[in-house]
Write a sequence for this structure.
DNA sequence: TATTGTTATACTCTATAACTATA
DNA sequence: TATAGTTATAGAGTATAACAATA
């Protein structure tokens, strides 16, 4: 549409910008994690909560696959999240050797609170952006998200697994 | 410019989209980390490499502050990164009680290799996006990055610390 | 026999507190 | 005395291997 100089130029720009912002956030985002109000949850535990929030209920083995973690690690992590009162383990109705893992009410409210505080931090950054770039960011990220989720569904492996 | 319905609507869209994509990547990106070719490096060690790549040389205490980690943790982590041959510890020229930490040649090439593989994974996703959204993503992220770095410079605290 | 989850053991990450050396 | 770094100890995250219970 607009004068494209080389066919891959805009792809490369998007790839570089993505990788750089991800690395920046890998340092900063983690730094803000443990300033939580109710109880500080480790980065690994937080990943468990994310998955449980999306796929609820889920058994232990499947959770491990989604996280890329060994069953024994997940089992121990659930011990602690259970002790914190964030996760509930109940026997599955379909098979007596499986568990049903789900967020407790406390887990749900912890996650909601964390998201509220993180979105407030993001708002501080995004408010400093020019309006046009802000709209571009929202449109670009929505499309990016669809593409990631599409890639994850297609093959059994997702984008990150290819890395 | 375009018909804005409510003043904060585009800000909220950008904030939500950002938070959601970050959470998605928090699970997926970490999953792909240890498929590295030369040697698998933990997520924490990788964060050290990022900082050393940007601010080189840096002393141990400052590195700890940037990471939000205690000096003892950083010291032990440097033991292992040193043993892996990724980081070099040398006495500072200015003060005999400080260290100068920097990436070794091997550390630099490891990081370059990891970035190449991760950018390839990102390219797979970004290639699936329509061209217009791809351009929007690149523009939006570049502006976002500037805003994050601006916020980090202004106050002594950055966006993530406010969370 | 294959699968789900747990336990045993070992190593890394993390923090607080005590320590050494330098300023 | 204050600061830079290390070491001691303890708890959390991770994996492999061995185990119990179920299908």
């Amino acid at each position: 549409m607009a004068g494209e100089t080389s066919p891959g130029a805009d792809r490369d720009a998007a790839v570089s910008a993505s990788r750089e912002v991800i690395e920046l956030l890998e340092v900063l985002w983690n730094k803000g994690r443990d300033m939580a109000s109710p109880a500080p949850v480790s980065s690994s535990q937080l990943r468990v909560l994310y998955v449980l929030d999306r796929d609820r209920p889920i058994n232990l083995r499947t959770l491990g696959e989604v996280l890329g973690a060994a069953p024994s690690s997940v089992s121990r992590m659930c011990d602690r999240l259970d002790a914190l009162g964030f996760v509930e383990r109940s026997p599955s109705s379909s098979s007596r050797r499986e568990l049903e893992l789900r967020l407790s009410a406390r887990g749900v409210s912890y996650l909601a609170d964390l998201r509220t505080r993180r979105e407030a931090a993001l708002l501080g950054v995004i408010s400093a952006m020019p309006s046009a770039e802000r709209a571009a960011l929202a449109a670009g990220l929505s499309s990016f998200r669809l593409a990631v989720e599409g890639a994850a569904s297609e093959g059994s492996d997702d984008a990150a697994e290819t890395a």
